[in-house]
User: Which sequence fits this backbone?
């Protein structure tokens, strides 16, 4: 058996054959094995302050990294759209009572230390209001469906309106109320533009 750089070379014979193998053994003059080190809060702050990289602490090279922002985005969209307030029409007024559907996703991607955000959503807004119909005040509910829209496409935003409680409204009255509800398009677009800007600033 011979020593070789902190290890030992061992030779054995077994059933007429021989072989040699190297065994690692710790010696007093051998370098210690590397041990994992957990980052402290001070290490994280130091790394963040000394680097302009956009990625996470573990991604200091700024290579591909994707972050899901869906929870924040859905909550923010609901908050913004419910703050539109009421709109006054020639024969009534209405307001967005709730966002009953908000499906899609939002994300932030870091590629080569450059940030890119994006989203795709479909919405349904519940609108409630009061209209003067043939000299009688009527409470009316309706849904505004906002077809799928994505980042940078808000100028082409499209909506569809359906009344949920038509009761005995005449067709002419229904069409008038639907046209009134379509006027929510512009304030909704403005709120979604604000959302888009906030997403870009994250």
Assistant:
């Amino acid at each position: 058996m011979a020593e070789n750089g902190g290890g030992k070379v061992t030779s054995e014979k077994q059933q007429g054959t021989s072989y040699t193998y190297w065994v690692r053994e710790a010696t007093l003059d051998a370098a210690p094995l590397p041990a994992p080190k957990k980052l402290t809060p001070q290490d994280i702050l130091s790394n963040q302050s000394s680097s302009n990289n956009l990625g996470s602490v573990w991604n200091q090279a700024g290579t591909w990294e994707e972050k899901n922002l869906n929870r924040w985005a859905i909550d923010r969209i609901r908050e913004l759209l419910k703050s539109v307030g009421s709109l006054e029409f020639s024969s009534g007024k209405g307001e967005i009572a709730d966002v009953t559907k908000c499906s899609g996703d939002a994300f932030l991607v870091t590629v080569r230390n450059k940030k890119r955000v994006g989203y795709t959503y479909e919405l349904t807004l519940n609108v409630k209001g009061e209209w003067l119909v043939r000299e009688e005040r009527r409470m009316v509910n309706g849904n505004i469906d906002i077809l799928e829209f994505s980042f940078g496409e808000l100028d082409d935003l499209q909506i569809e309106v359906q009344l949920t409680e038509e009761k005995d409204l005449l067709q002419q009255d229904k069409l008038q109320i639907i046209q009134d509800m379509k006027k929510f398009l512009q304030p909704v677009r403005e709120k979604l533009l604000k959302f888009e800007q906030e997403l870009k600033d994250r």
Summary: The CA atoms of residues 11 and 19 lie 6 Å apart.
